[in-house]
Amino acid sequence: MPRFAFILLLFLNSCNSTNSDNIKYISTSDYILSLSEDAELIDVRTPTEFDSGHIQDAVNIDFFSESFQSDILSLNKDSKIILYCRTNNRSSKSADLLKNNGFKDISVIMGGVSEWVKNGNDIVYPKSD
Question: Model-level pTM?
Answer without folding.
Answer: 0.82
